[in-house]
Amino acid sequence: MKERPEVGVGVLVFGDGKALLLKRKGAHGEDTWCYPGGHLEFGESFLDTAIREVEEESGLKVKNPRFLCITNDIFKNENKHYITIFVAVDYVSGEARIMEKEKCTDIGWFELDNLPKPLFI
């Protein structure tokens, strides 16, 4: 295991009562659905990370980033330790599309009471 955890930012994108999810590919959690997100970059605020990651992964413009919670997750089987900061944002514009084909196989908007399965942990 690495000596220090990685810092990730998970982004819950909401628009018209639905949430944006992507299906993971080629990474831990492959073939599961999850929110957009990625790593905090040096010198970047976690709110700026949230806006950047959503645009990089889905092509969408978002606004109003707000802190939700933090988790401390140790994935022993994958030899990974993550501190993940969760941020909610509001959809502004754009059509959701897969921008990083090496990381995702599908993308869509889902009602909160009818999310696709399996979901990422």
Descriptive account of the structure:
- The protein is mainly beta and 121 residues long.
- It has one helix spanning 46-58; strands at residues 6-15, 18-24, 33-34, 37-39, 61-75, 80-93, 104-111.
- The protein starts with 5 loop residues before the first strand and ends in a 10-residue tail after the last strand.
- The mean pLDDT is 95.
Largest sheet: 7 strands, mixed
Portion of residues within helices: 10-25%
- What proportion strand? over 45%
**Rg result:** 14 Å
**Separation of termini?**
20 Å
Give a short summary of the structure:
The protein is mostly beta strands and 121 residues long. It is built from one helix and seven strands, in the order E-E-E-E-H-E-E-E.
Keywords:
1 helix; seven-stranded mixed beta sheet; 121 residues; mainly beta; 11% helix
Topology of this protein?
Layout: E1 6-15, E2 18-24, E3 33-34, E4 37-39, H1 46-58, E5 61-75, E6 80-93, E7 104-111
Parallel strand pairs: 1-6
Antiparallel strand pairs: 1-2, 1-4, 2-3, 2-7, 5-6
